[in-house]
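Listing S7. Sequence submitted for prediction.
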Amino acid sequence: MKDMNMTVIATARLILRPHVLADAEALVRGVGNFNVSQWAARIPHPYGLADAEAFLALDSAIAIRCAIALQDDPERLIGGIGYEWQDGQPPELGYWIAEPHWRQGYAGEAARAMTGHAFDTGRHDAMVASYQIGNAASRRILDGLGFVETGEDVSFSRARNAETRIMRMRLAREGRRP
């Protein structure tokens, strides 16, 4: 599985590539913005250089983590996406886009590519994801991919330092949309 961590995926406008140490400052600018981190369960706020360096040092045989960059500037990180799994469980999709790049369809484009990777290369039969209630953009992305709601739950948000309501979703291989 380790070879999958070197994943590079090209889409019409994006490159999903392995993270590099040079991404640290862009990570801090991107997810250090509370407008971004508030919607992700695992990202603390404030988010500093030590947090970014710790994330970049993670090495996992059960996760695919990619930087999102534009085709015309593949070194400049504008977001992150990935999925991770545990034995017997479908992989969980997660993503974020830096605020200056919102409303341009990048998250949906990257998520479509990453779910395709999970099904075609990773050979997974289903994926799961969740969004915080109130995050309409993430809901639209997951709906557009074919994810279906499986129920409301609560999750702890490190950025908000509070429990938040989330909607859990699932996508079966045969339910994905092109």
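Caption to Listing S7: primary sequence and predicted structure tokens for the chain studied. Residues 106-120 form the longest helix (15 residues). The first strand starts at residue 9 and ends at 10.
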